[in-house]
Every structure is written in C-alpha cells, then in structure tokens.
Amino acid sequence: MAVARLVAMGGLVRELVTEETPSRIAALTEELFQAAGSVSEESERAAEAEPQLPGAVPLSSPPEETQLPCTLGHTAALAQVEEGAVSLWNWAVTKHMGSVVSDEQRAKLRFVACKLVCLCEDGDPPEGTIRRQILMCMKTGKSWIDIGKADLADGFLEIAMSSIEKLYAKLLETDDEANIHVHKADVEKNLFKVLSYQAESAVAQGDFQKAMMCVQRCKDMLMKLPKETCYLSILCYNFGVETYEWKKYEQSSFWLSQSYDIGKMDKKYSVGKEMQAKVLRLLATAYFEWDCSLYLDKALRAISLANQENFHPAGFFLKVKILLKSGASDEDINSAVAEFLHHEMSLDFCLNTAKLLLEHGRESVGLDFLKSVSQQFESSPDFGKIALLHIEFLLQNKRELLAKQKVEDIIIGHYTGKQLLPEALNQLHIILWDRAAKHYEAKSYSEALHWYNYSVSFYTPGQIDQNLAKLQRNMASCYLHLKQVDKAKEAVKEAERCDPNSIFTKFSVYKIAVMEKDTDKAVAAAIEIGKLAEKPSQHEDRLRADENTGTNLLSLAAQIALENEQQVVAIKALEYLSEHLQDCQQLFAALKCLVRLMLSKVMAEDEEKRDEDINSILSYLTLAHRRLAESFTEEKFTGDMRILEAHWFRKVAWNLAVQFRSSPEKMRDFFLLSFKLSQFCPSDKAVLIGQKTCLLMAAAVDLELGRQEVTPSQQAELLTQALQHLQACKEIWKILKLTGCLSRDGDPLADDKGLEYRHTSVYCWQI
Questions:
Q1: Would you call 101 exposed, middle or buried from its count of C-beta atoms within 10 A (0-12, 13-18, 19+)?
Q2: Burial tier of 582 (Cβ tally within 10 Å: 0-12, 13-18, 19+)
Q3: Exposure b/e, 240-266, CB count within 10 A at least 16 = b
Q4: Taking the complete model, does pTM exceed 0.70, yes or no?
Q5: What is the DSSP letter of 66?
Q6: Rounded to an integer, what distance in angstroms lies between the CA atom of residue 582 and that of residue 699?
Q7: What is d(CA 612, CA 575) in angstroms, rounded to the nearest whole number?
Q8: How far apart are CA 656 and CA 659, in angstroms?
Q9: Helix (H, G, I), strand (E, B) or coil at 103
Q10: Predicted confidence band at 65 (pLDDT cuts at 50, 70, 90)?
Q11: Cβ-based neighbours of 204, under 8 Å, separated by 6 or more
Q12: Per residue in 406-432, pLDDT tens?
C-alpha cells in the first residue's frame, strides 16, 4: 500500500474532525468511505495474488508485498495515520451523540477508522492493539447490522473472531498466572458478543442454519457467563418476532422456544415471569397462525404456560380464540371464561371477549358472559356499552322485539338518573338510525318511524340540534310515504326550528308543497334550494352535502314535480338545475325537458302572456349554444354526442322561428340561434343550405324592420346586420358551389327534396 494513499486519507480525516457544517461532513464522510473501500479492495486483490505467510490473519494485517519499508519516516507516517483513525472513531461517537452524524454516517466512519487501524498494523501487534482492534471490528459490524446492511458486517465480525483467537494465544504464552483468568474471562465475553452479532447478521440475511449454530455456541457458554442469560433470551425473542413478521412460522417457533428455554436456565439472571409469558404468547400465536389444526395442542400448551407464568388479558383472549378455532365444546370455553372472571379486567376487554364469542356463534356462552360482566360493572359509568353490545347482537340475529325491549329499558333509565355517557348515547343513535334506514329501504315506513321515535326520545323539548333536524326530516319522509301529510308537516316544522337554513329542510318543505299542490310555496322552496345550491360550504352535513348535493336535489325536485303534474314548479327547478349542472349530458337533458315543458305551456297560453315564456325558451337555447362551445374541453362528452345535441337544438330553433313568424324579431332570433347551433354540425349539404336559409331570413327581417319608423341609428344598425348576414350567406354559397351542391340554375334549394323540419312535438320528459 503506498504511503501516499494512507497519508491522503489521514489528511481527509484531519479535515473532517475540524468540520462543523453538516453538508460538508456528509461529503467528507462519503469521500473517506469510498477511499477506504478502494484501499480494502486493492489489499484483498494483492492477498489473492500472493499467498499470506503461515500464521497471518486475513484482512487484519496487510500482505507482505504491501508492507511499508521499515524506515523511520514511514513508521512515523503510519503512527500518525493510526492516531488519526482513533481520533476519527472518537469524533464519530461524540458527533453521533449530538445528532450531528446519522446512524449510517457513523457506520461508514467506523468502517474507515477500523480499516485504517487494520492497515497500519504491524506483523506482531501488542496485546493492547489487538484488544482495540477487536472492539472496533465488533462495533463496526454491529453498526452495519443496526442500519440494515448485515452483509457488510460479516467481514468485520470475522476479523474480530480471528483477533480474539490471536489474543487468546498471546494470553496462553504469558507467565502472569494471577491475571490470566481475568483476561480469559474478557476474551470469552468478547467471543460471546461476536457470536451473538454473527447470529443477528445471519437472521437478517435469512441464513437460519448459521444463526442457529451461533446461538447454540452462545448457549453453551452460559455456564461460564450466566449474566448473559437475559441478553441471549431477549435476542432469541427478537429473532422470533422478526421471523414471525416475515411469516416464517417454523423458524419463529424455534427461536421463541429457545428464548423460553434459555430464560429458564438461570433464575437469578432470568428475564422474569412477565417476559417469559410474553414469549409464550407469541409462540402460541405462531403455532395458531402456522397451522392451528396441526399444532393446536402446542398452541394450547404454550398459552396455558403463559397464563401460569403471568396472567394477562391478551393471554386469556388468545386462549379463547384458539379454543374457538379448534371447535372446542361450550363446556371447555365456559371453563376458560370462568378462569378469566376471577381476575380484574377492563370493561372494553370484557366486551371484546363477549363479541368474539358471539361472532363465533357461541350465543349461550357469550350471553352468559355478558350477564356476568353486567353484574361486575353495574355501577360503572360505561355500563351503557354492555347494553349497546347486547342490542347489536340481538339485531344481528333478527331478534328485534328483544332489542326493542333493551332500548326501552335504556330510555327509562335515561329519565330515571341512569343516563348513558355522550359517546355511548351517540353510538346508540347510530344503531337506531341504521335500523330505521333498513326498514325505510324495505318500505316498512311504520317500523322505521318506530326506531326514529326511539331516537327522538333522548332529546328534550325545545332542544335545537342539527341531528334532531335530520331526524325530523327522515320522519317526515316516512309520514309522506304513509300519506300522513299533517304529521309530515309537523316534523318539517320542527326541522325548520332546529335548522332553518338547511338545503335538506327546504327540500322537505318543497316535497310537502308539491303533494299539497301549493304551487306558490313549492316554487318558493325550489328557489331557496337553488340559492342554497350556490353555497355548498354552508351545508350542515359535509359528508352528505358535497358539491353535487344541490344539483341532485334540484333534479329530484323536478322529477317529483313532473310526477305530480306540477309543470310550473318543475320548470323552476329545472331552470336552477341548468344553472348549476357541470355534466354536459345532464345539462342538455335538463334543457330539452325545459324546452318541451315551456312549449307545452306556451301553446296553452294567450298570445299576450307568451312573450316572457318565449324569451325563456330563447335563453334555454342560448345556454345550450354556450355549453356546446364549452364542451370541447370535456373528455366524457364526445364529438358524436355534441353533433347529436347540436342537431336537436338547431331544429328546435328552426321550428320555433317558423312557429313564431308573427313576431319578426323573435323569428329572427330563433333563425340566428339555429344558424349558430348548426355550426357544431358537420358541414354537409343539408346543414349548409339550412345555414344559408337562416341567414337569409334574418337579413330579410332586419331589412323589413329597417323600413319601419325607427331612428337613423337603429336603421343603420339593422342594415349593417343585414349586410353581415348576406355576406355570410355569400360565403356559404361559395362552399356549396365548390362542393358541387348547386343545381343547374345555381339555386341550392332546387334539388333539395329531402330537407324537412318538423315542428317539435310537445310532451313532458322526466329526469
């Protein structure tokens, strides 16, 4: 090894130990790590090329050809590098304690320091140097294991093992009988540590056989090192936990059994009964999850031993699980439960046990256990939890009558000083509402009301609560289905008192108004729903009132109105709906429905009342045109869909223009809308001729209006518009001529036999 390489690394070390900037520390650490790695590779290649002399230890000293010449200068340089390596080691320890250096950086710095010390070692190092090398190699190996890079630890642990053997040989050569036993004890401790680290590395790398061999050697040393019993027992337990998490149940059961056996070897240095029980519980779990049918006896034996060592709720619970899984008789399970009742356990744990029994169909045992728990916790403020579990079980098993009796008992207790805690009461409301909702879905509205009334019983008269408002709205829906409108109105009135600004409350008001054919009230409610739909953030129930709530309710409102033949109300609901819908398909469906409904209304009206409704139809078609233009950015709305919708609306606009020819301005507006809508259609002959005709008719109307008594500025505007329409006509005529669609006399209409626009049929369409 060239002296220059080591000196250069020594310079980096000196720079690092004086550095304070974290980023620079990280960079220098990485540079040193890479340099030490390359030095190590060169040393290994040289060792492979030239066999080592007899007695040499691999990696602990450089090969002969890489030894530095024994000159005074080189010796001083090596001493300086070695001193720097020791300083680096101590610096890394200090900085790691101060959180300046991370675990991985510390491992890399230990790697560098350890490599430098090994490379600077001479052929026959003194005892102190060997001890230092053992310590550094052990800690470097452990650092790699701790950060999950066990493969990098093996080389250092092997060096440590070789150095221990070398140290032991030196100790045997000494004549100091007084200290030899002390030194040999130190060697044995180091050997134990190295073996345990090698076992850790092997487990991390999945080498079960090597790990087992290392642990067995450690186990054999416990007679001389009894204080290590606790450490080795916990080490095996940790191996059991790791392999259990990897679902290697066979290996896990081996390690946990070893942990328990080692823990029994020396009572003085044992891990204690609590830890032993913990080991046995995990062992029973490993057998249970590995193959309960095959290892049932082992699982039961392990958990029984665990409960004998130290009783713990988890141990009892696991024993019940194993018994249930094995199909044990009710008598055996009762025996296990009876054992449990002699110990003080939390209510939650008792409830979980009861739930486990009931879920596994052990009704008799579960209910008996629940009764015992009720007696034990009768004075507890959490007593309501027991009743709730009982009610849930009865409902799950279709024992609704018994469940009702339990609920009624709770209601009586609520008003006689035995109230449920807020959390339990809230859970009871959830159970009651859920049962009512199931009856509602099954169209058993009377039963649904029965369960809702139970919930109402817990509210005091005059109480204002948003949940009470929801409850009253749900009851109102049930009353409406039962045709009990007066009771529904009372419920909605109560909901308005509790939550007057709720969009859902307004919807309930709307439904009743529609059923009573109160058009004015229904329209007013539809308007309120439309306004509230613009402010979704103000809805009282964020989970239900999402961004689509307003549109969903308006859509439903329109449908209810149509089903009840309330066209005026439906129109108002659809108008607000069309303002808020983002989905193009839904919007065009709503606009089509609006057009049909309004046409039906217009046809039944006197001419004097038509103007406003005709203007509404114009606004619907204008909205359709605007949204068709915007629909190009909507992925779900395809080009074919756009063309179909454009055709429908342009034909409607054309027919309306013809329908209202007695009103020139309206006729012109409809023709122009038909032209604009047709621009979203393919430019075939029929569409182009239709466009040309629309523009000609619009120009004719503008000219006619210009001849009437109007101001000069109005006349100029009308004539300008007519010229623009005619210019557009001319462009279309050119396209027709280029495409060969003109007849022999140049009239594009002469050959058109198939162009026909029917008047839009008027009928109601439900959404």
A1: buried
A2: exposed
A3: bbbbbeeebbebbbbbbbbbbebbeeb
A4: no
A5: G
A6: 35
A7: 14
A8: 5
A9: helix
A10: very low
A11: 145, 148, 150, 242
A12: 999 999 988 888 888 999 999 999 999
